[in-house]
């Protein structure tokens, strides 16, 4: 690491010409990429503060609002559907992520233990389900069969464990030295104490990243909600967004002006964008992908 | 101490062979707390992962909701035969394959290239900034992404105008043009995921021993040699694992996104196996058994693909998933 820093600290000017060109080109390319990534977002934000009629008349990318106004936001805030959607999504994200983590931690803990007979079988069972699935209709029938159809829990219980996430946590837990657990065991600690007091703090980067994965997937999911939720009272935010952003293009009943669509996007996206920078420091440390052995 | 551990070992290995049932009983007696802990997880997997697999049996029946899985009439391979004669089969196979392959060719390497370029940045602040910005799109939901796409490629949208200005493309709503569907899908896919997918490679890059570079430098290797002979070989194991995982999900092409973007006008290029499964299951000409048969076919193809990719990569370089 120190040699890396030394290497980085060498003055750019002292490097061979080829490398100097490479570094400058690399930096420029990265700046260009960042601009490319940000332009559509800037367009959305600029559009959301624009005057509706003027935007309709305009064509092309927008980098600054036309006739700045907050009218679009006022009508978004007045839209009761969005707030109901928000409430449902928050419930799903918070309760869902907590249950997901509880189940994933326990599963990863058991799967990473050493000495018990069914270890191979359990691991095989878990990993196999990553590569083979019953598909859409049987899944739908099972969810319906256990009585979750039309219930908000249909968006939480059937997706408790994502096997890829589970494997990330399991890989991290396998790396924890046995001696720590053994000494805890000698002190009379039970499995739950070992899991939550000793191992979890040690694999915190992976836990943080996986929790973020789960939270984001709950926040973004709309397909299962479309299949299972029939009562508008329980619509998550993404289904409301689908009506406003997608169906409004084709279906007269959902017609919405573009500036309002943009304002809706901003309102529905800001919260999740505020969360991830806090966890970003864990990203690179937390996602180690090893062989996903059964 | 050593005699004690020897004795402990002897108890397991040298004892006269115990019957399986006795061994299971003993194991459960020893580890009952562990099994108790796993019970809810086991229940979850059985109900939500394995019960649906068992539910695949309805693809051999004429499933009627009123009669249930056990009461419906058994028809054997009927739905599979119908599927292989389905006039839409060539279309959905071709589209699934085109989109999956395009993702593999364009989206998959883009993240690797980005990770390499970020890794070579000299300034730490710059590197952190590029990471933070390139992660943003990953946190924007697919519904919102499709909403933005719809605006950008509409008649007056930014992308349409740009292409019109640069290449003189005819001004039209690109979403209604079948030939634009795959490019729109791929470009937006890269936009959404390039940053996020690069993380796994960045974390592999931080694990490379810096001494290697120092040694190479002493031996007169320039930047290019270092990338080719050190960085990339060190990345290969991660690339292989991500590749196999990707192949496994290949035929599951982002159907959620496709459903938000396609219209009957673009079915010709956009309709894939999973969107067809959805339509035949819930939207048009509904037939649960038929739809399940199509999904079953998809699952089997995916599984076979993963299996063989794994086999091939293991033979080629010793890197494999299992």
Structure report:
The complex is a heterodimer of chains A (294) and B (322). Chain A is 71% helix and 0% strand. The longest helix of chain A has 33 residues, at 80-112. Chain A folds into two domains: 2-69, no CATH class; 80-286, MetI-like (MetI-like fold, Orthogonal Bundle), CATH 1.10.3720.10. Chain A is built from 14 helices and no strands. Chain A has helices at residues 2-9, 17-48, 52-57, 71-77, 80-112, 119-131, 136-145, 163-174, 178-186, 191-202, 204-220, 223-228, 237-250, 258-286. In chain A, helix 4 crosses helix 14, helix 5 packs antiparallel against helix 11 (204-220) and helix 8 packs antiparallel against helix 11 (204-220). With 294 residues, chain A is mostly helical. Chain B is mostly helical and 322 residues long. Chain B folds into two domains: 27-76, no CATH class; 88-317, MetI-like fold, CATH 1.10.3720. In chain B, 74% of the residues lie in helices and 1% in strands. Chain B contains 15 helices and two strands. Chain B has helices at residues 2-13, 20-54, 68-71, 78-84, 89-119, 124-135, 142-152, 158-167, 181-206, 210-218, 223-250, 255-261, 267-270, 273-283, 288-317; strands spanning 61-62, 73-74. A two-stranded antiparallel sheet of chain B has the order 1-2. In chain B, helix 4 (78-84) packs across helix 15. The longest helix of chain B has 35 residues, at 20-54. The relative contact order of chain B is 0.10. Residues 1-11 of chain B have low confidence and may be disordered. The chains are: A mainly alpha (294), B mainly alpha (322). At the A-B interface, helix 1, helix 2, helix 5, helix 6 and helix 7 of A face helix 2, helix 5, helix 6, helix 7 and helix 8 of B.
């Amino acid at each position: 690491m120190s040699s890396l820093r030394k290497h980085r600290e060498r003055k750019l000017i002292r490097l061979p010409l080829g490398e100097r060109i490479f570094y400058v080109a690399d930096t420029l390319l990265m700046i260009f990429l960042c601009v490319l990534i940000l332009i559509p977002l800037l367009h959305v934000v600029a559009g959301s503060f624009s005057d509706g009629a003027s935007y309709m008349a305009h064509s092309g990318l927008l980098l600054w609002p036309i006739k700045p106004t907050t009218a679009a936001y006022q009508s978004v805030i007045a839209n009761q559907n969005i707030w109901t959607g928000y409430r449902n999504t928050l419930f799903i994200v918070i309760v869902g992520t907590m249950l997901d983590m509880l189940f994933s931690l326990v599963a990863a803990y058991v799967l990473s233990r050493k000495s018990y007979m069914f270890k191979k079988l359990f691991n095989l069972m878990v990993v196999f389900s990553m590569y083979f699935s019953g598909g859409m209709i049987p899944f739908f029938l099972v969810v319906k069969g256990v009585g979750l159809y039309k219930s908000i829990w249909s968006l939480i219980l059937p997706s408790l464990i994502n096997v890829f996430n589970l494997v990330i946590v399991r890989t991290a837990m396998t790396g924890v030295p046995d001696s720590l657990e053994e000494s805890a065991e000698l002190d009379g600690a039970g499995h739950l104490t070992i899991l939550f007091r000793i191992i979890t703090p040690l694999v915190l980067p992976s836990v943080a990243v996986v929790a973020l994965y789960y939270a984001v997937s709950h926040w973004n999911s709309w397909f299962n909600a479309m299949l299972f939720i029939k009562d508008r009272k329980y619509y998550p935010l993404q289904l409301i967004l689908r009506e406003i952003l997608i169906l409004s293009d084709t279906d007269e009943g959902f017609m919405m002006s573009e500036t309002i669509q943009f304002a809706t996007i901003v309102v529905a996206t800001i919260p999740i964008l505020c969360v991830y920078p806090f966890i970003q420091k864990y990203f690179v440390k937390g996602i180690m992908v090893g062989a996903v052995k059964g | 101490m050593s005699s004690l551990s020897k004795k402990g070992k002897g108890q397991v290995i040298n004892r006269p062979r115990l019957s399986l049932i006795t061994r299971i009983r003993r194991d459960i007696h020893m580890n009952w707390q562990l099994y108790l802990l796993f019970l809810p997880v086991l229940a979850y997997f059985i109900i939500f992962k394995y019960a649906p697999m068992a539910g695949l049996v309805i693809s051999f029946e004429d499933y009627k909701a009123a009669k249930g899985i056990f009461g419906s009439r058994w028809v054997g391979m009927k739905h599979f035969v119908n599927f292989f004669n389905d006039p839409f089969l060539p279309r959905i196979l071709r589209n699934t394959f085109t989109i999956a392959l395009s993702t593999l060719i364009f989206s998959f390497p883009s993240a690797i290239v980005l990770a390499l370029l970020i890794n070579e940045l000299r300034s730490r602040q710059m590197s952190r900034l590029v990471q933070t910005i390139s992660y943003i799109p990953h946190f924007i939901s697919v519904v919102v992404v499709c909403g933005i796409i719809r605006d950008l490629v509409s008649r007056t949208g930014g992308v349409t105008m740009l292409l019109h200005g640069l290449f003189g493309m005819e001004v039209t709503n690109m979403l209604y043009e079948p030939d634009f569907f795959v490019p729109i899908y791929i470009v937006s896919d890269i936009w959404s995921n390039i940053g996020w997918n690069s993380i796994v490679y960045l974390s592999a890059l931080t694990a490379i021993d810096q001494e290697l570079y120092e040694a190479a430098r002493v031996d007169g290797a320039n930047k290019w040699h270092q990338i080719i002979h050190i960085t990339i070989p060190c990345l290969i194991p991660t690339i292989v694992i991500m590749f196999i995982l990707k192949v496994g999900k290949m035929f599951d092409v982002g159907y959620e996104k496709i459903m938000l973007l396609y219209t009957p006008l673009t079915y010709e290029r956009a309709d894939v196996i999973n969107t067809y499964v959805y339509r035949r299951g819930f939207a048009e000409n509904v037939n649960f058994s038929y739809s399940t048969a199509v999904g079953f076919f998809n699952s089997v193809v995916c599984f076979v693909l993963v299996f063989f990719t794994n086999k091939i990569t293991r033979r080629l370089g010793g890197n494999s998933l299992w």
